[in-house]
Amino acid sequence: MQSRELVIIGAGPAGLSAAVEARRLGIKDVLVIDREPEPGGILKQCIHTGFGLHVFNEELTGPEYAERFIREAENLGVEIMLDTMVIELSADKRIVAVNNREGLMEIQAKAIILAMGCRERTRGAINIPGFRPAGIFTAGTAQRFVNIEGYMPGREIVILGSGDIGLIMARRLTLEGAKVKCVVEIMPYSNGLTRNIVQCLEDYDIPLLLKHTVVNIHGRKRVEGVTIAEVDENMKPIMSTAKFVPCDTLLLSVGLIPENELSRMAEITIDEATGGPVVNQRMETSVPGIFACGNVLHVHDLVDYVTREAELAARGAASYLADGGKKYEYVPVSTGSGLRYVLPQRINADAMTDSRQNFFMRSVRPMNKARLIIESEKGVIKSKAMRHVKPSEMISIQLGRDEVIGIKMLRFSLQEEGDGVERDG
Amino acid sequence: MSAMVNEKTVTCIICPAGCRIRVSMQGGEIASIKGNLCKRGENYAKDEVTHPTRVLTTTVRLEDGRLLPVKTARPIPKALLFDAVKELSNVVVKVPVKIGQVVYSNVAGTGVDVVATRSWK
Ligand SMILES: Cc1cc2nc3c(=O)[nH]c(=O)nc-3n(C[C@H](O)[C@H](O)[C@H](O)COP(=O)(O)OP(=O)(O)OC[C@H]3O[C@@H](n4cnc5c(N)ncnc54)[C@H](O)[C@@H]3O)c2cc1C
Ligand code: SF4
After folding, report:
1. Residue ranges of the domains in chain A?
2. pLDDT at A424
3. What is this model's ipTM?
4. B12, B32, B64, B71: which to substitute to probe chain A, counting the most A Cβ within 10 Å?
């Protein structure tokens, strides 16, 4: 069995950013493990621009963003073990990993950072009737086919769900000569960024059908078409509106779920709302010394926030290694009305690694004008007017240590306010 | 004689407000711009209606068959995106490649370079 100081599972932007920060903080022994043959995580297949505006003040592509961190990690002497899959994790910070050079190996870590990313929801999770013909892919799988392996998943395409990966693929496939028939979204609003709706759909006259869903998939061997229908307020299909759309491929862009099989093995408490671990102010899970960041913690829409969160997790791991697992009391952070979740879910103001604490949250629905209200047991401690809130765009707000010291609870809520926006016509 | 009036709707992407901006054109000239909440939207809508441009990201082949992600070094006219992709589908690049390296010049006659967005050994 090997002994290591800090082991990071996953070499995507979260794992690499955490590794770089950990080395900068002087942690000497940093090992990053990834099952892929190359570091970079999902960014390797995200060849479009839109990464790094906050961290680098530049609009980079996914591979460019990844390469900066890969190079930095190499320069700082981070050890990256590739083609190696972590298959077990226990609460006493023992890792079992496997590769075809060394076989099975056991590693005892002093601290661990989880950075395993997320996976895509698949059709099974959403249950469409019909056979299971070839030609049904998640949008991310199609992205890997086209951008890494170099072949097209099909010629005539319908996309279910308007998440960003689906929108990006609509443009990519169109430019490569496919015909994207439509993007079908069950909600009355899109889950993608406005920028992607404009530059990936409107630019190519691809229809976005809101309040619609796929009710049937046709074809036995290969997809031959789908039946789509409008849905009512309860999201039930209105069968009188059903119509057949011929296509050979159905892409699913219906959401991402944090990848937490290992976390569950280590009996880490999972938050139902985020699908990732419950964490404290330093991104430490319910198991002391095990930290989490990036999409394994909650699904991010901006890689820049992934990097910031990973740096915080690395500072957390450094403070844990320094204080030797000292026990802390936490005050709960709860989610009030208008919000789906708030993270971190508990804090200790004295043990904050920085003078200001970042809180991330998502709204339950789009709101043109809203007020974010933060309360303690003594009443409102901060409120902030917000505009154009959307579930797909994460909200981030900071509280200073002086604002949270001595409190017994924190609650965040989001109240919709009258739309004061003047729009002519 | 009054020339044809036609209206185009542009969704502004500069900030999350996502204003739907209506630009009416008369005889090839912009007659009015409505629906934008701020001045930045006006300029954006003008550009979108008169000469929309985009950065193109795509892939080209390496000589060993792997794919190399690339982008145009500057935005190119939107109308030339398909031509550019077609032209680039014939490009084959020698290994090794360094990130930022120019792999093709003057794509679709735009005068713009195409650069690698990753290194390959
Ligand atoms: C298909 C897809 C496409 C996306 N496209 C975009 C986009 O276009 N724009 C955008 O801003 N965001 C996009 N995202 C969100 C994107 O994931 C985040 O911005 C960011 O990449 C998350 O970084 P991460 O490091 O948390 O996860 P990832 O980049 O997913 O990295 C996780 C890493 O952990 C490794 N790993 C997981 N489990 C194990 C294990 N047991 N053992 C060893 N290694 C393991 C994986 O191999 C992977 O390399 C996309 C997400 C997905 C799933
Ligand atoms: S017009 Fe102004 S307010 Fe409206 S989306 Fe554009 S930048 Fe934002």
Report:
1. 1-120+255-325, 122-254, 328-425
2. 41
3. 0.90
4. B71
